[in-house]
C-alpha cells in the first residue's frame, strides 16, 4: 500500500529524518514507535505531503506521490489524523464531518450516519462546537473526520496521547475494527501497550533514523531493543 | 462651542438614523474586508479600490441603460459582479501563486493591486466627478421624528441587514461557508481532508471583493463618484475590522455601528470636529479591548 524509500526531511535548516525507509502492506496495521521528538510526526507529515521530503521517494498504491499536495493525497485515499487533534473548533461536530465528506469509489462508503454508528458517542454531541469537546471526544472526531474522506489508508499520529485509559481502550478496539473493515493503518505511538497489541509489524525510530523493523511478535520479545530506544 | 442647534429628541433620532444608514454602507464594505482577512489572513489594501470600481461601474452601467430606474437597478446588480470578475482575474492570474510565500508578499501584492487599480480607474473613467440618480422610488424624503429623512437612506437600512443575514446564512448553512470558516482557523488541516484550499481562498477573496463592489454601487447615488474615494473607505474599513475583531462578521457590524454613529452624532454636537469622533472611538475601544470588541479569528 505504502512504500517510503530513503526520505530525508527538513524543517528549514534542521535535518529531521535521515534516510527513512519503510513499507506498509495492504490490510495491516504497522506501527512506528519512538520517543518524543524521535521523528514520528515528521514521518507522518512527510507521507501526507505537509512537510515534503527533500530527497527520497514515497509510493502509494505503487504510484510515486512525491510533490503531490495534501488535498490530492487525501483524494487518492490517504486519511490523516494529526497528533494535536486539530478539530475545526468553531464548527459543530456535525459540520466537521460534513465538510470532510468525500464520495468513495470503492464499496465501503462512510457517511455521517455510519460514522456515528461507529462512534456512537459522537452522535449525541452532533450540534456541539468541536472546541468544547473533551480530549477523547476530539480524538474520536479527528478519526471520524478522516473516515469521512473514505480513505483506504489511515495515518494515525499518536491517537492515544493524553487520553484516559478507558478511552484508550475504546479507541484501540475501534482501530482494530477498522483493519477488519479492510483499512490499512500506519500508527505512530508512544504507548507501547496499544501499539504492540494492535499491530502486525513495527518500526522503531530514534533521532530521525529507523533503528528496528520486525514482526510484532519479534518486537514484543525483543525487550532489549525496546529498552534501548523507547525507555525515557 | 457653538452648536447652533437644540438637541431635541427629534434631532437626535434623525441623526441616529443617518448614522445607522452610513453604518450600513460601512458594514457591507468592511464585512467583505473582514471575510478576506479571516480566511486568507491578509488585509486587502486594494479593498477600497474595488469599492471605487464598484461605484464607477455603477455609473457606467446606469448611464448605459439611460440613467433611469432600470439603469439603477441593473447597476446595483451588475456593478458588484464586475468587481467580482476583476478580483477573480487578479486572484487566479497572480495572487494565487503567492499563498505559499511569506505573509508580507501577500500584503505587498494587495498594495500593488491598489496602485494598479487606481491608475486603471483613472485611465478608464478619467478624473471627472460623476453622479448617479437614484430611481424615483428612492428619491426625496419621508418624515420621521418630524424631520425629513432621505428615502435612499431608508433603503440602505433595509439592504444592510439583508446583506448581514445573507452572509450569516452563507457561512453557517452552506458547505462552502463552513469550509471557509474551517480554513480561517486551520488551512493545513482543510487541505488534509481533501479540499483544495487554493479555491477556497479564491472564493473568499472574490466574495469579499464583491461586497466592496456592492458597497461602492450602493453609495454611488449619495456621493460624487471620483478618484480618491478609495482612500477614505479603506482606512475606515481597516479601523472597523480592527475594533470589531479581525475576521469576525458581527465585529464588522459592531465596528460599523460605532463608526457610523459617532460620525453622525459628531456632526450634531460639534460639526467642525465631526470627523474626529470616530477616531476617538477607535482609540477608546482599542485601549479598552486591544483585540477588538468581539472574538478575533487570529
CATH architecture of chain B: Orthogonal Bundle
| CATH architecture tag of chain A | 3-Layer(aba) Sandwich
Number of strands of chain A: 10
Oligomer: heterodimer
Q: How would you spell out the order of helices and strands of chain A?
A: EEEHEEHEHHHHEHEHEEHH
Give a summary of the structure in a few sentences:
The complex is a heterodimer of chains A (232) and B (298). Chain A has helices spanning 40-48, 70-76, 93-100, 112-118, 120-123, 135-148, 165-180, 192-198, 216-221, 223-230; strands spanning 2-11, 14-24, 29-33, 55-60, 63-64, 78-81, 153-157, 184-189, 201-206, 209-215. Chain A is of the alpha/beta class and 232 residues long.
How does this model look, in words?
The complex is a heterodimer of chains A (232) and B (298). Chain A has 232 residues and is of the alpha/beta class. Chain A contains ten helices and ten strands. In chain A, β7, α7 and β8 (184-189) form a beta-alpha-beta unit. Chain A is globular and about 45 Å long. The relative contact order of chain A is 0.20. Chain B is an all-alpha fold. Chain B has a single domain, classed as ABC transporter involved in vitamin B12 uptake, BtuC. The mean pLDDT of chain B is 90.
Amino acid at each position: 500500500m505504502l512504500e517510503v524509500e530513503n526520505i530525508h526531511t527538513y524543517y528549514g535548516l534542521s535535518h529531521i529524518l535521515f534516510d527513512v525507509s519503510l513499507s506498509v502492506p495492504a490490510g495491516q496495521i504497522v506501527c512506528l514507535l519512538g520517543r518524543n521528538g524521535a521523528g514520528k510526526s515528521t514521518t507522518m507529515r512527510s507521507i501526507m505531503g505537509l512537510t515534503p521530503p527533500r530527497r527520497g521517494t514515497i509510493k502509494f498504491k505503487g504510484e510515486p506521490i512525491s510533490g503531490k499536495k495534501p488535498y490530492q493525497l487525501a483524494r487518492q485515499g490517504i486519511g490523516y489524523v494529526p497528533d494535536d487533534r486539530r478539530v475545526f473548533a468553531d464548527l459543530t461536530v456535525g459540520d466537521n464531518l460534513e465538510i470532510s465528506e468525500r464520495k468513495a469509489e470503492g464499496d465501503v462508503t462512510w457517511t455521517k450516519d455510519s460514522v456515528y454508528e461507529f462512534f456512537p458517542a459522537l452522535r449525541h454531541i452532533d450540534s456541539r462546537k468541536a472546541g468544547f469537546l473533551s480530549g477523547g471526544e476530539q480524538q474520536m472526531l479527528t478519526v471520524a473526520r478522516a473516515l469521512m474522506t473514505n480513505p483506504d489508508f489511515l495515518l494515525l499520529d499518536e491517537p492515544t496521547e493524553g487520553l484516559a485509559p478507558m478511552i484508550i481502550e475504546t479507541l484501540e478496539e475501534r482501530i482494530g475494527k477498522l483493519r477488519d473493515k479492510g483499512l490499512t493503518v500506519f500508527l505512530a505511538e508512544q504507548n507501547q501497550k496499544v501499539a504492540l497489541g494492535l499491530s502486525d509489524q513495527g518500526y522503531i525510530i530514534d533521532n530521525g533514523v529507523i533503528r528496528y523493523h520486525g514482526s510484532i511478535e519479534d518486537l514484543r520479545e525483543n525487550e532489549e531493543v525496546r529498552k534501548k530506544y523507547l525507555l525515557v | 462651542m457653538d452648536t447652533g442647534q437644540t438637541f431635541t429628541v427629534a434631532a437626535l433620532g434623525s441623526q441616529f438614523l443617518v448614522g445607522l444608514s452610513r453604518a450600513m454602507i460601512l458594514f457591507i464594505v468592511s464585512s467583505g474586508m473582514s471575510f478576506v482577512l479571516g480566511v486568507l489572513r491578509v488585509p486587502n489594501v486594494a479593498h477600497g479600490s474595488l469599492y471605487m470600481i464598484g461605484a464607477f461601474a455603477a455609473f457606467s452601467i446606469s448611464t448605459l441603460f439611460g440613467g433611469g430606474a432600470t439603469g439603477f437597478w441593473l447597476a446595483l446588480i451588475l456593478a458588484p459582479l464586475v468587481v467580482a470578475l476583476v478580483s477573480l482575474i487578479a486572484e487566479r492570474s497572480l495572487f494565487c501563486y503567492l499563498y505559499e510565500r511569506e505573509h508580507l508578499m501577500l500584503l505587498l501584492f494587495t498594495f500593488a493591486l491598489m496602485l494598479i487599480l487606481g491608475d486603471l480607474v483613472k485611465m478608464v473613467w478619467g478624473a471627472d466627478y460623476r453622479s448617479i440618480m437614484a430611481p424615483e422610488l428612492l428619491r426625496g424624503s419621508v418624515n420621521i421624528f418630524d424631520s425629513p429623512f432621505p428615502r435612499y437612506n431608508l433603503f440602505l437600512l433595509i439592504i444592510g441587514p439583508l446583506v448581514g443575514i445573507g452572509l450569516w446564512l452563507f457561512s453557517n448553512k452552506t458547505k462552502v461557508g463552513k469550509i471557509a470558516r474551517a480554513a480561517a482557523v486551520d488551512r493545513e488541516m482543510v487541505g488534509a481532508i481533501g479540499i483544495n484550499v487554493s479555491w477556497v481562498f479564491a472564493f473568499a477573496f472574490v466574495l469579499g471583493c464583491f461586497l466592496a463592489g456592492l458597497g461602492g454601487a450602493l453609495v454611488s447615488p449619495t456621493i460624487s463618484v471620483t478618484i480618491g474615494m478609495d482612500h477614505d473607505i479603506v482606512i475606515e474599513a481597516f479601523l472597523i475590522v480592527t475594533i470589531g475583531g479581525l475576521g469576525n462578521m458581527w465585529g464588522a457590524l459592531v465596528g460599523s455601528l460605532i463608526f457610523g454613529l459617532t460620525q453622525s452624532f459628531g456632526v450634531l454636537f460639534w460639526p467642525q470636529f465631526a470627523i474626529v469622533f470616530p477616531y476617538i472611538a477607535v482609540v477608546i475601544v482599542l485601549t479598552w479591548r486591544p483585540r477588538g470588541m468581539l472574538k478575533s479569528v487570529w
